[in-house]
Structure formats: structure tokens, C-alpha cells
């Protein structure tokens, strides 16, 4: 299942990280911003993997915690708090809310769980729309960051990168230890997991908490960068959808899958139809349909099969993917 | 007096809510698909009625069959061509697939129809019927009656006709139904088509009494979630009760908490019900 | 006197109007093999579900080494040393055979192997014990039924139980496979594990068990040595129906 990374794999990851750290020294601000977006969805996808990919609970809550973190940063920074402290508080708040909600919600299975998490995100949005402290539907302004565009583009980029690294490392260590095995056992067969001694309730809650901490932090960075928040922007179900689809595109349940998925999706979509910004969601829709039909187990799985059977068999592999689940 | 009027409004709203949710409940109950496209079919049905009225002056209640039939075929095609390919995959896949289609269709709808809110305004739109000192809007009572009527017809169909029984049989056990020679692919497509037609019908009704835009689909979808969760899956009393409870909660909630929180109340109700009794207040699983 | 390991007092489980297990008392002595028999729907599996906490009893007490466990959660009970197999096998279908067993080793007992590596070692031992070593890299879903039943065995043994509850490990197997399974059960007992075994086949239960209890319509109708129980009139009635018993009686009288 999860083998510890080999030295070569660690080297590869290190090289990738180094490239990301050096990136801002070589490219324009526009390009940096694009990579910041990639990192943001990578955070969402990696986080979703804890609850959705490893544990098998299809959560639509990422948007809820993303928005929660965003508003936490907005409100606290307006009250004079340091940005990084607001990120920490946002993470704690996200964890606490996940803990409180997880207890009732994680008793549900399947569609009921999906609906409940969706309901939570929508409920948060309605609340943010109506509270005075969030500025209601009019939105809320944040303090403007000082310094020139070169400075603040890099500031936000590195903040986002920091959160992403945290998320990925957490995921790596979870999957290589007892916790990760327990989560996968729950995904594969919850009753059997309980009978082999897994404390299913506790483990599910841990997974849900882990899956909400990093989106909350990412939301905080997003808020400071945007300098203005509206409920409809940050509690957008599309954040949840993207997290899910990118995990699927790469391959759920693995550390690399969500990263690969996020990279492919954001970079390629920008490259291929960056000009048609208006139709982004339509293209996203088309990608979703194609991924579900042809890559239900993700790119990683397909690339492994191609590796063992050669490129010539790509057509056969895709065809067998679409045959797999039909009536 | 205020209460009486709110009560009447709630009941009228509850009737149309039941009608909105019933197709969703059918598709979920029979095929275990959480159909994100439900709101989209509803929206498209509403536009059929809107354009028939706007372009050709067809009375909204007369264009109902057209809206239903066209969306039946659209739904049939979607299930046959796409969803059937992944029926045996984890249930989550069909949810995501319909989500992808929803994004695509809604985007196209915005392109072709613009994002404006539209409403069908027939000449009798303003009429209301005085009743014991209260006033009952004519349009609302009509769509209430039609909504409840059509919902009942659907349940009659499911319970009493051959196709209806075949649909219920496939729900029980996919494999043995297939072994017995039932063409599952076709039955599923018909079921999905019926779900889409039911959605479109309620969309047509909604376009008269309320207003629609390409993005209102999500609102109706959420209502369907909530109603099915409250009422439980697949029984007429459940759908009606769910609709009624939601209608009452929204109207009285708006009265006491302010209209801004009207939608939030639905979600609170949703989460409460899931917490107390996951199979719905009147819940039985499946579609009987 | 032998030591009582597992004990039930008045265990009762209702599903709506149906009483699936009705005031059943039982004891399992350390080191023995206790057989539980009864016709279809007698409540055997339900009793197991009560013991393991998967479907807690409505009434009664269940004691493991003198400690009340009837309100504990399944994973706690497992960790105390009560393991089971499922009548309908419940593998982690998408995982490799070895990983299935690793789960048991990782989580199964108080003195659990907290490290994945140690758990894998134990898992390999268990796979060798049940004779599945050569399949350890295969997906659990690719095994034959007999192999899956052995996998269930390995998985529950990996939790290092003191008492093992076996639910119809022989159902659906052919004669050869049944013999293998029986010798496996004996091997497990030699390791010092106490066993409660549910069985349909009379022959298997008489060969295997030291003592037998019989359930019928949720009630315990007989208890004793295998020989005594299988010749008990009530038990034969429960198994074969009244008519058969009447017929036998008539034959007896005639001869
Ligand atoms: N979850 C449940 N809900 C309702 N009834 C149940 C449930 N589980 C079992 N029953 C009923 O309880 C009775 C006892 O079932 P149980 O499975 O314990 O029998 P069994 O002795 O294991 O039979 P078999 O030999 O067929 O395995 C049966 O009538 C069964 O239908
Ligand atoms: Mg049984």
C-alpha cells in the first residue's frame, strides 16, 4: 500500500520543492500568480484526500473551511492581528469546528454524508451573508499589504507554498503510519475495520479535522491577497468540486495524486483555454466528465499501466476503464 | 390574520416544493444517484415554458407537456450515453459526473439565455381569490394543485404500471434483474428520463409563480436535498410532508428571524434531521 | 475447575417485533472448543454480533474474563482479546492479502505492533500459518472463497486473540477444503486460543467441539456433549421437523 519513499523519491520531491522556491527568481509576477493558484488548489486537493481519498467519505466541506479561514483572517486582521497569527488561529478554529461537526456528521454514510457536508458549507455562506461582523452580503475589506507588487506577489506565493508543504508532509507521515492504515481500512470496509480493532469514530474525526486545517490556512492567505471578501466568493462549492476532481484526476488515496491532478488541471486549463475566461466552468465540467469516464482511478494508475504495457496499449487501457462500471 | 396568511402561503409553497423534490427522490431511490442535474432540468423546463410564452404567446400551463417531454428525452439520453457507463462505480462517481454536466449546461444556459431572472407573466398573473378574509394568489393555487396532481400521477405510475414495477424491481437487485433478462440500461434511462420530466414540470410551474435564471438551479437542488432528507426517500407522503415542513419553516423563520436567514433555516433543518434520524423523519429507504 | 473466559447471562436481542436472541446463557471455558448449532435464522450470528459489540444486545450481561463488555465498542472488545470471522467474509477487498492481515496486527490488541514494519512481520507469520504466503501480494478480491475464509482466519489471528469466534467457516466449501479448515482450527487451539465455533454441519461440530449449545428461534434448547446433544429429541425436531421425529418414533416402535 504505502511504501516509504525511497531516497530517489525524496530527492525528486526535494528537487521539486527547490524548483518552487527558486521559481520567483526567474519568472514574471503573472507566472508567479499562476503558480500560487496551483498551490492553492493543491492544498485543497491534498486536504480532501484525508477524508475523501483515504477514508472514503465524500466530503463537500472544503469550501466551508476555506471560507471559515478566509473570514477569520479578514476579521482578525481588521482587529489588528498579525497575518501569520491569524493563519494559526484560522487553522485552530477550522480544527475545532471540524471536531464539533464531525461527531454528528461522520455517523452518516454515502450520499447522506455528502449532502450534510454540502449543507454545512451552504449554511456558513448564509450566515456570513447575514452577520454584521462579516460585513454581510456587502463583503469585507482587509488591510492592504504594503510594499510593491514584486514584494507582495512573492510574499503571498511563499505563504501559500508554506501551507502546501505542511499539508503534503502531513499527508506523507499519516499515510506511512498506523493512522493512514486505519483510515484506509475504514474506506475498504468499515465494519471489518472495527472488528480488527480500529477505533473508527476517532479515526474518521481525525481525518476530517486534518482535512479542514489546511484549507482554512489557504483561505487565510487567499483573503489577505484578495483584500476583499464576499461570502459567495469563498464559500463557493466550486472549491470543493475542484478539490475532489483534482484528487480524482491524479488518483485518490495517494500523496502524489492530488499534486499531479492540481498541476495538470490548473496549468493545462490555463494554457489551453486561458483566453476564454468566461467559459472556465464549462471546461471544468467537460474535464470532470472525461475524468470520470476514462480515468476513474486517476492518471497515476494509468501511467503505471502504460509503463508496464507500453504506450501502444493506452487506447486499450482507456477503453477498459470505460467498460469497467457500465450496465 | 398574519398567521393565517403565512399558513396559506406555506402550504402553497410546500406543495410546489414537494413537486420539485419528487423526481430527485425517484432517481436517488431507484438508482442510488444523487442527481446534481436535477436543478438543471428544472431550470431548462422553466425556460421551455418561458420561451414558448415569450416567442409564441403559448399559455404557460399549456406548454407543460412540451417541457416535460423534451426533458424526458434529454434525461434519457444523458443516462443512456453517460451515467449508465458508470452505474457500477462507487456511488460518488455519478454525483461528480452529474456535477460536471451541470457546470457545462449552466454555463451554456448563461451564454444563450443571459443570467437575467425571468418570469412568465400571463394576463391573469395578478389575480387572487379572496378566501375568509385572506387572499390566495390564483397562479400559486393553480401550480399547487397541478404540482400535487402530477406528483400523485407519478406515484400511481410507479405503483400500478408494468414499467413502474419493472423500475422498482431493478432497484432491489441489479444483477438478478439483469439475469432475468430485464434491459437494465433501458429501464435506468427511462427512470432518469421520468426524473428529468418531473423536474422540468416543476420548473415550468416555478417559472410562472416565481422567477428563474440559469443559476437558480442550485437553489432548487438544495431544496430537493432538504426535502428528501426531511421526508425520507421515495414516498408521496414523505415528499409532501418534507415540502410542507420546509415551507412552514421558511415562512415562519423569515417572520421571526428576518428574511435574510430564510435559506439558512433549510440547512439547519437538514443538519438537524440528519443528526436525529438519518433516514428521514418519515423515512424508509428506497422507493416504495 | 477450568476457568471461565467468556460468559453470557440472559443475552437478548430484538429486531422490532422479532426476538432474534432470547435470554441466552452460555459460558466458554478457557482452552475449549464450544460449538454453537441451530437451524437457519436461529440467532447464531446475532449472538456473535452481540458478543463483539457490532450489534449490541438489548438485555443481559456479557463478561470477558469477569469484565462486563456488553456496552463496549467493537474495537475495544477486539483489543481485549475477542476476535471473530464473518459468515459472509468481509475482506478489505481493494487491498493486498498481506495488508488485510497487517490491519489486524496493527490495531488488534492492547500490546499492538504500533509500527507498520513489526505488524508486517507478524502478518507474514500469520499468512504462513494459514497457508496463504504465496498469495500475499494479490488483491483480496481475487481470492477464491476458501482462500478468503482463510484470510479471515489470518486477519483475526493477527489480533492475537484469547478467544476466537468462528461463524460458519465451512459454509460453501468442498470436502477437501472443509478438512483443511478443521485441521486449521485444531492447530489454532493448540496455540492456546479458545474457540467458539458456529456450524451447520452436524458431523463437523461433533468432530470438532468439546461442548455444544443449540439455539432455536433465539432460545437455547440444549447444551452438553456433542453425542448427547445430537441425540436429543428436541434438537432433532428443531433440525428436521416434527414429522420426521414422529416417523422415527413409529419406526422404533415397529421394530
Ligand atoms: N439486522 C437485522 N434486522 C432485522 N432482523 C435481523 C437482523 N439480523 C438478523 N435478523 C433476523 O434475526 C434472526 C436470526 O438471524 P441470524 O442471522 O442470527 O441467524 P443464524 O442463526 O446466523 O442463521 P444462519 O444459519 O442462516 O446464518 C433471523 O430471523 C433474521 O432474519
Ligand atoms: Mg448466521
Sum this structure up briefly.
The complex is a heterotrimer of chains A (327), B (288) and C (255). Chain A has 15 helices and two strands. With 327 residues, chain A is mainly alpha-helical.
Protein model, in words:
The complex is a heterotrimer of chains A (about 325), B (about 290) and C (about 260). Chain A has helices at about 5-25, 30-55, 60-80, 85-105, 110-130, 150-175, 180-190, 190-195, 200-225, 230-235, 235-250, 255-275, 280-295, 300-310, 315-325, and strands at about 140, 230. Chain A is an all-alpha fold. The two termini of chain A are about 30 Å apart. Chain B is mainly alpha-helical and about 290 residues long. Chain B is built from eleven helices and two strands; from the N terminus they run H-H-H-H-E-E-H-H-H-H-H-H-H. A two-stranded antiparallel sheet of chain B has the order 1-2. In chain B, a hairpin with a 2-residue loop joins strand 1 (about 130) and strand 2 (about 135). The longest helix of chain B is centred in the first third of the chain and has 30 residues, at about 1-30. The mean pLDDT of chain B is about 85. Chain C is of the alpha/beta class and about 260 residues long. Chain C has a six-stranded mixed beta sheet, sandwiched between helices. A four-stranded antiparallel beta sheet of chain C has the order 2-1-4-5, covered by helices on one side. The N and C termini of chain C lie far apart (about 45 Å). The interface of A and C includes residues 185, 192 and 196 of A. Adenosine-5'-triphosphate (ATP) binds next to strand 2 and helix 1 of chain C.
Helical percent range of chain C? 40-55%
Taking pLDDT < 50 over at least 5 consecutive residues as the criterion, the unreliable ranges of chain C are none
Please count the beta strands of chain B (DSSP E, at least 2 residues each): 2
Terminal CA distance of chain B reads 39 Å
Largest interface: A-B, 43 and 49 residues
Distance between the termini of chain C: 44 Å
Strand order of the largest sheet of chain B: 1-2
Computed over alpha carbons, the radius of gyration of chain C is 19 Å
Structure classification of chain B: mainly alpha
The radius of gyration of chain B is: 19 Å
As a percent range, the share of helical residues of chain B equals: over 70%
Mean pLDDT of chain C: 87
Amino acid at each position: 500500500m504505502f511504501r516509504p519513499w525511497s531516497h530517489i523519491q525524496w530527492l525528486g520531491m526535494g528537487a521539486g520543492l527547490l524548483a518552487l522556491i527558486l521559481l520567483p527568481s526567474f519568472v514574471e509576477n503573472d507566472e508567479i500568480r499562476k503558480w500560487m493558484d496551483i498551490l492553492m488548489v493543491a492544498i485543497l486537493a491534498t486536504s480532501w484526500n484525508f477524508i475523501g481519498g483515504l477514508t472514503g467519505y465524500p466530503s463537500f466541506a472544503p469550501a466551508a473551511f476555506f471560507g471559515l479561514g478566509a473570514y477569520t483572517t479578514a476579521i482578525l486582521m481588521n482587529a489588528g492581528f498579525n497575518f501569520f497569527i491569524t493563519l494559526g488561529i484560522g487553522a485552530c478554529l477550522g480544527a475545532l469546528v471540524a471536531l464539533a461537526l464531525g461527531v454528528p456528521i461522520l455517523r452518516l454514510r454515502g450520499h447522506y454524508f455528502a449532502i450534510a457536508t454540502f449543507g454545512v458549507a451552504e449554511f456558513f455562506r448564509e450566515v456570513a451573508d447575514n452577520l454584521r461582523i462579516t460585513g454581510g452580503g456587502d463583503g469585507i475589506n482587509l488591510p492592504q499589504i504594503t510594499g510593491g507588487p514584486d514584494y507582495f506577489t512573492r510574499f503571498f506565493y511563499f505563504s501559500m507554498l508554506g501551507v502546501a508543504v505542511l499539508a503534503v508532509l502531513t499527508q506523507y507521515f499519516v499515510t506511512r503510519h498506523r493512522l493512514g492504515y486505519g483510515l484506509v481500512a475504514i474506506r475498504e470496509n468499515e465494519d471489518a475495520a472495527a472488528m480488527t480493532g480500529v477505533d473508527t469514530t476517532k479515526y474518521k474525526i481525525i481525518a476530517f479535522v486534518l482535512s479542514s486545517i489546511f484549507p482554512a490556512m489557504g483561505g487565510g492567505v487567499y483573503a489577505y491577497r484578495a483584500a476583499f471578501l464576499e461570502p459567495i466568493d469563498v464559500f463557493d462549492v466550486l472549491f470543493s468540486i475542484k478539490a475532489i476532481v483534482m484528487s480524482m484526476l491524479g488518483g485518490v488515496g495517494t500523496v502524489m495524486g492530488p499534486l499531479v491532478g492540481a498541476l495538470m488541471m490548473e496549468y493545462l486549463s490555463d494554457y489551453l483555454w486561458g483566453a476564454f475566461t468566461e467559459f472556465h466552468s464549462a471546461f471544468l465540467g467537460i474535464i470532470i466528465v472525461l475524468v470520470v469516464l476514462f480515468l476513474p482511478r486517476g492518471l497515476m494508475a494509468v501511467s503505471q499501466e502504460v509503463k508496464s504495457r507500453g504506450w501502444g496499449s493506452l487506447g486499450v487501457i482507456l477503453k477498459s476503464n470505460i467498460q469497467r462500471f457500465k450496465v | 390574520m398574519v398567521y393565517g396568511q403565512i399558513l396559506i402561503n406555506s402550504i402553497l409553497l410546500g406543495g410546489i416544493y414537494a413537486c420539485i423534490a419528487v423526481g430527485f427522490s425517484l432517481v436517488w431511490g431507484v438508482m442510488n444517484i444523487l442527481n446534481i442535474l436535477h436543478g438543471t432540468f428544472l431550470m431548462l423546463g422553466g425556460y421551455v415554458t418561458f420561451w414558448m410564452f415569450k416567442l409564441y404567446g403559448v399559455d404557460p400551463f399549456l406548454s407543460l407537456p412540451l417541457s416535460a417531454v423534451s426533458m424526458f428525452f434529454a434525461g434519457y439520453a444523458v443516462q443512456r450515453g453517460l451515467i449508465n457507463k458508470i452505474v457500477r462505480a462507487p456511488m460518488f462517481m455519478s454525483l461528480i459526473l452529474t456535477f460536471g454536466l451541470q457546470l457545462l449546461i449552466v454555463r451554456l444556459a448563461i451564454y444563450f439565455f443571459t443570467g437575467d431572472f425571468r418570469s412568465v407573466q400571463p394576463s391573469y398573473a395578478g389575480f387572487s381569490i379572496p378566501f375568509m378574509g385572506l387572499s390566495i394568489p390564483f397562479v400559486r393555487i393553480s401550480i399547487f394543485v397541478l404540482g400535487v396532481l402530477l406528483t400523485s400521477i407519478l406515484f400511481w405510475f410507479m405503483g400500478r404500471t408494468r414499467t413502474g414495477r419493472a423500475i422498482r424491481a431493478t432497484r432491489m437487485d441489479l444483477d438478478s434483474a439483469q439475469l432475468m433478462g430485464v434491459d437494465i440500461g433501458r429501464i435506468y434511462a427511462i427512470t432518469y428520463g421520468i426524473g428529468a420530466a418531473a423536474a422540468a414540470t416543476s420548473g415550468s410551474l416555478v417559472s410562472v409563480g416565481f422567477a428563474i435564471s440559469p443559476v437558480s438551479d442550485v437553489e432548487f437542488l438544495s431544496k430537493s436535498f432538504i426535502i428528501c432528507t426531511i421526508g425520507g426517500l421515495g414516498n408521496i407522503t414523505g415528499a409532501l410532508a418534507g415540502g410542507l415542513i420546509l415551507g412552514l419553516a421558511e415562512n415562519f423563520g423569515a417572520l421571526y428571524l428576518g428574511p435574510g436567514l430564510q435559506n439558512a433555516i433549510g440547512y439547519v433543518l437538514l443538519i438537524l434531521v440528519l443528526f436525529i434520524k438519518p433516514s428521514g423523519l418519515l423515512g424508509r429507504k428506497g422507493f416504495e | 475447575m477450568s476457568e471461565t473466559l467468556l460468559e453470557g447471562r440472559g443475552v437478548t436481542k430484538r429486531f422490532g417485533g422479532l426476538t432474534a436472541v432470547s435470554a441466552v446463557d452460555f459460558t466458554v471455558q478457557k482452552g475449549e472448543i464450544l460449538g454453537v448449532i441451530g437451524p437457519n435464522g436461529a440467532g447464531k450470528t446475532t449472538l456473535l454480533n452481540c458478543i463483539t459489540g457490532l450489534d449490541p444486545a438489548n438485555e443481559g450481561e456479557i463478561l470477558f474474563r469477569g469484565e462486563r463488555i456488553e456496552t463496549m465498542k467493537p474495537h475495544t472488545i477486539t483489543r481485549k482479546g475477542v476476535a471473530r470471522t464473518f459468515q459472509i467474509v468481509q475482506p478489505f477487498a481493494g487491498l493486498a492479502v498481506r495488508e488485510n492481515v497487517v490491519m489486524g496486527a496493527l490495531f488488534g490488541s492492547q500490546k499492538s505492533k504500533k509500527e507498520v514494519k513489526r505488524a508486517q512481520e507478524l502478518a507474514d507469520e500469520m499468512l504462513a500459518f494459514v497457508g496463504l504466503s504465496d498469495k500475499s501480494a494479490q488483491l483480496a478480491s481475487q481470492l477464491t472463497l476458501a482462500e478468503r475464509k482463510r484470510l479471515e482466519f489470518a486477519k483475526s489471528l493477527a489480533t492475537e486473540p484469547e478467544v476466537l469466534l468462528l461463524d460458519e467457516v465451512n459454509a460453501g466449501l468442498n470436502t477437501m477444503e472443509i478438512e483443511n479448515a478443521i485441521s486449521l482450527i485444531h492447530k489454532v487451539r493448540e496455540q492456546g486460543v479458545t474457540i467458539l465455533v458456529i456450524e451447520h454441519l452436524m458431523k463437523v461440530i461433533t468432530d470438532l467441539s468439546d461442548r455444544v449449545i443449540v439455539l432455536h428461534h433465539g432460545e437455547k434448547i440444549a447444551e452438553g456433549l456433542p453425542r448427547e446433544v445430537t441425540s436429543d429429541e428436541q434438537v432433532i425436531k428443531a433440525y428436521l421437523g416434527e414429522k420426521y421425529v414422529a416417523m422415527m418414533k413409529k419406526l422404533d416402535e415397529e421394530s
